[in-house]
Amino acid sequence: MKTNKKGNLLIGFIILISVVIIITLIGVFALRKAPIVLQGEAEATEVRVSGKLPGRILELRYKEGMPVRKGDTLVIIDSPEISAKLVQAQAAEDAAKAHNMKAIKGARQEQITGTYEQWQKALTSVDLAKKSYNRVQNLYDRGVVAAQKRDEAEANYNAAVATAKVAKSQYDMAVNGAEIEDKEAALALVNHARGAVAEVESYLSERALTAPISGEISDIFPKEGELVGAGSPIMNIVDLSDAWVSFNLREDLLSKIQMGKTMQATVPALGDATIQLEVYYIKAMAAYADWKATKVSGQYDSKTFEVRARPTAKAENLRPGMTVLIEWVKL
Questions:
Q1: What's the rounded mean pLDDT across residues 9-32?
Q2: Assigned CATH for 32-45+239-330
């Protein structure tokens, strides 16, 4: 009987110890904090292609998802209005060049000959007026004619001299050509016209838009035949070789994050593939992303920081929008 009692007490003690151990283990696991998992998103450099030329989409040479290389022609835009402006600008340039050549060359030979004949004619008139004036002056000295006749002859002579001077000036102008100021003004008109042509040609060069970077076409906005305005987005190119992961963290979680720190991450979309990331960017976000304290004491408002980390090696098949996970306990 005593042996049975001792065996029952031993069994009860063992059961009690087992229960205590189980309760202790349950308490340990229940009170242990769950591991923090940082969730980020993969991003990549994206460039928007747009043109300065308004017109109609004549041809789209690539489709979404197709790879392109820098300098490849992506789209052709048709703009008859700009083509018409080029014709107008070229006509204005031709007119300015003609005017400039005229200023440089001077008057035509026929004009020079004509002004010379007018000058000679004026000199003949001066000679005749001078002789008439001398005769009238002699008669006036003898008292034959009145003073009025002498004054009229003198006035005719002075008028003839003035006319001859004007004719001589016209002849000199025809021989010497345009003034320096006129030549400079004509040259300025030529340069202005050339600038107008160059401006229109620069717009016309935008008819064929080329890829500014190598990458993959991610979006195409207009369809062939649609009208687009100046600066309207036409397509996006994403550079998958320049990818990074962006996380948003409260400042109280930044204790383990520093510039240049490396950490392991998994990508669920790639079958939980592991990639190594290196932090290269930490910046506080705008006030709208702050964490506000819910208690009067014991808590404080926390800023939210954006952390960016770049793969240390090329991450195959990593695409923008994929979720990237990091376990905080492994940092």
A1: 65
A2: 2.40.30.170
